[in-house]
Amino acid sequence: MSHVIYVSDGAQEYVSVTITELTGKDISADPVWISLGTPTAPATWNTATLLVASGATVTFGLLVDSNTPVGTYTAWAKIGDGPETVVRRSDGTVTLA
After folding, report:
1. What pTM was computed for the model?
2. C-beta separation of 35 from 45 below 8 A
């Protein structure tokens, strides 16, 4: 799924990533970072904001605005679910125009 956010027109919106912990564990308190990178690699990691938590399914977001460079990105999420850190790439792209 692709999404366009018109930051050059002053839009502010969250790029969101939904994560489901398959064993049912509550991960809403786990640290999460989001990166806007390429399809093959994340870029700079940014602390994510918890947007919605419902049991083992959580949605985290990264607020983008006119300070975020325009371009087409793939969103990545990094979850600190001790003792492991899990990195996942989202489907689709987000274009900041």
Report:
1. 0.88
2. yes
**CA 52 from centroid of its chain's CA atoms:** 13
CB–CB of 61/68 below 8 Å? no
Q: Which of 17, 9, 59 lies closest to 36 in space, CA to CA?
A: 17
Strands 2-5 and 93-96, bridge-based pairing: parallel
2-48 residue pLDDT tens: 889 999 899 899 999 998 888 888 888 889 999 999 999 999 999 99
Rounded to whole angstroms, how far apart are CA atoms 48 and 29?
Answer: 12
Is it true that the peptide bond before 83 is cis, omega within 30 degrees of 0?
Answer: yes
Domains observed in the chain: 2-96 (2.60.40.650)
Distance between CA atoms of 79 and 97, rounded to whole angstroms?
Answer: 28
